[in-house]
Amino acid sequence: MPDMLQRKHLSAAASRAARMPRAARANVVRMWRAARYAVVQSPRSLFWRELAANPGQIGAICASSPRLAARMAAWVDLSAPGLVVELGGGTGVITAALLACGVPRERLVVVEYSPTLAAHLMRRFPGVRVIEGDAARLTQWQSEGYLPPDASGQAQPIHTIVSGLPLLSMPHPVRARIIQAGAAALAEGGRLIQFTYTLRGRSPWQMADLVLHHSERVLANLPPARIDVLER
Ligand SMILES: C[S@@+](CC[C@H](N)C(=O)[O-])C[C@H]1O[C@@H](n2cnc3c(N)ncnc32)[C@H](O)[C@@H]1O
Does residue 164 line the site of ligand 1, with CB under 6 A? Predict the structure, then answer.
């Protein structure tokens, strides 16, 4: 016959054993919820949901390929002082390429219209200024001192704009407002890098008197794309 102490140990072990399946079940549920959250919050899933909700605003069938993003980033002149502003950050493929090629976080600003994608960018790139809003407000943010200042608190010029905006699928007045604001916000001698799925024709930024400096095609993208590099 087990004594009092043995009985206590046995009943503790029995109750642990009884709890085991429930604890294991709870673990499985917890892991399943975490996996489901990861899938729902994954860049690809976010992109598809945003595309389904706002096809005109997204203007692409999938996010840019790493190759296209790397080629866009390669055109940033890292020796130029001031800010690099990315318009239409999406899920952050180009943002990641800009950081990887050496753009300092504190000099990078990403503008994204979709609140869901902007929140995702804020989580994904701590230290990068992400602005949720319309790219057409760039000059307003600049004049209101809403963009990050330099180390001494002075306003910084925008020396590069990197745009993934679907300009050609936007209504004409919307596109015109964005182009006007972007060209006005860009510093003298600054550079604007835009990709488009239209492989021929003038860049809409030429309407704002930016001068085409270079054009290249990136076939490793769905669909193939063209990068235009313009200068002010
Ligand atoms: C073609 S996706 C490009 C996303 C990402 N840069 C890439 O290359 O995968 C265009 C992005 O621009 C954003 N966008 C569209 N209109 C905008 C506007 N007026 N202001 C800021 N972002 C805008 C969309 O929400 C979308 O995330």
Answer: yes
Ligand 1 atom index nearest CA of 47: 27
Tell me, using a 6 A CB cutoff, whether residue 130 lines ligand 1: no
Q: Do 159 and 75 lie in a common domain?
A: yes
- The pTM assigned to this predicted structure is 0.85
Number of domains in the chain: 2
What is the DSSP secondary-structure string of 38-50? HHHHSHHHHHHHH
pLDDT in tens, 222-232: 999 999 999 99
- Top mean-pLDDT range of 28-42, 56-70, 160-174: 160-174
Tell me, yes or no, whether 73 lies in a domain: yes
185 contacts 138 by C-beta, under 8 angstroms = yes
Query: By residue range, what is the domain housing residue 143?
Result: 59-231
Q: DSSP character for 85?
A: E
